[in-house]
Design brief:
Length: 179
């Protein structure tokens, strides 16, 4: 029995962004990002159905454009970057649901707490670049409840408004290079 050779795709951080969005005081949204991360997909060429995907992000690379807030997010009130330096995702299912559309199910680990999540994946296409590399672009979206991952810090204003929302929207615009 012969096994088809799998194609390995690695994330290209210079053409990618990994962001999250959370409500602040219920009235506005704060956007944060990770500056240091790695991801790979193992697939049959550029057919991503049943692919295996992994992703890690370094908690110390978190940025919300506010140093005090970033330090608070890295503290034990939230991610505890010192004890849990990375968040990790590993897919368990990569299912094609439409033309260029996928549902990816997998295990997300934050603070040593692992939960199954589902993400929507839009494959923007696969093309060759001017340097002879083959690239694939994806837009990945989903949401998690931060408290399910031990990010339980809470505060309420005198007026009764919650300072940080529980729902975190995930938004990744990522480009992969075929290896």
């Amino acid at each position: 029995m012969t096994t088809a050779t799998k194609t390995l795709w690695k994330i290209d951080p210079t053409h990618s962004e990994v962001q999250f969005k959370v409500k602040h005081l219920v009235i506005s949204t704060v956007t944060g990002s990770f500056g240091s991360y790695e991801g790979k997909i193992e697939a049959d060429g550029d057919n991503f159905e049943n692919a295996k995907a992994t992703f890690t992000a370094d908690i110390d690379s978190i940025s919300t454009n506010n140093e005090d807030r970033d330090q608070h997010l890295k503290s034990d009130d939230f991610f505890n970057a010192e004890e849990y330096p990375q968040l990790k995702f590993e897919s368990t299912n990569f299912e094609k649901v439409g033309e260029g559309e996928y549902k990816v199910t997998g295990e997300l680990t934050i603070r040593d707490i692992t939960k199954e999540i589902e993400l929507d994946v839009l494959h923007g296409g696969t093309v060759g670049d001017p340097y002879g590399q083959t690239k694939a672009g994806f837009e990945i979206t989903g949401s998690i409840n931060r408290k399910e991952f031990g990010l339980t810090w809470d505060a309420v204003t005198e007026a009764g408004n919650v300072v940080v929302g529980d729902k975190i929207k995930l938004q990744l615009n990522v480009q992969f290079i075929e290896n």
